[in-house]
Amino acid sequence: MRQPARRTALKWGALAVAGGLVTLTAACSTDPNSVEAQAKAGDRKGYVAGDGSIEQLAVSERGAPVTLSGTTLEGQPWNLADRAGKVVVVNVWGSWCPPCIEETPALQKAWEKVQADGRPVDFVGLDKLESPETGLAFQKANKVTYPSLAYDGGVPILSLQGKASATPTTLVLDAQGRIAARVSGPVTTTTLLGLIDDAIDEKA
């Protein structure tokens, strides 16, 4: 088994400097139109600077499995329980969020890579604060081929155990559905593939 170079056992809220992967990134506010968000942004773009943290939890530090389900932007049912035994990448995004737009090609590239390699991995997006029609139009325009769940009043996001307060946020769930890693802010293809590899190596 490859020795995971990036794994760092940390409690949530700590900054993980692991394998040189931590970079300062931008994250959108929970509500892009709030007075607080616009005041923090200064430029009235509706987003604020994130802390850029990349966090990983040792198996002993993880909580209960996530129970995520919902309806895709295409109107199809989706349930994490159907992906048992796979590593699952969950990305919270919105087409109104500039850092989300920035990271979209990196996520798609990572998805294509794990598919080409036949890795036991699934991706799902969680669209936020917009209609399914708006989110789907963005996905099609950007040639995103993995599914995203509709916002549905924020119900799917509530299942993420409070670990997706920033937008974008990317979570890597282990084969048991527990949160193994979190990136607050835009993620790069290299970073995401490294976190996925670590989670797969645990399963091996």
UniProtKB/TrEMBL annotation:
Residues 1-26 form the signal peptide. One of its GO terms (molecular function) is oxidoreductase activity. It comes from the Bacteria. GO terms for biological process: cytochrome complex assembly. Coiled coil: none annotated. GO terms for cellular component: cell envelope. Keywords: Cytochrome c-type biogenesis, Disulfide bond, Isomerase, Redox-active center, Signal, Signal-anchor, Transmembrane. Residues 57-201 form the Thioredoxin domain. It is found in: Cell envelope. InterPro entries: Redoxin, TAT_signal, Thioredoxin-like_sf, Thioredoxin_domain, Thioredoxin_ResA/DsbE_sf. This is Thiol-disulfide isomerase/thioredoxin. It comes from Humibacillus xanthopallidus.
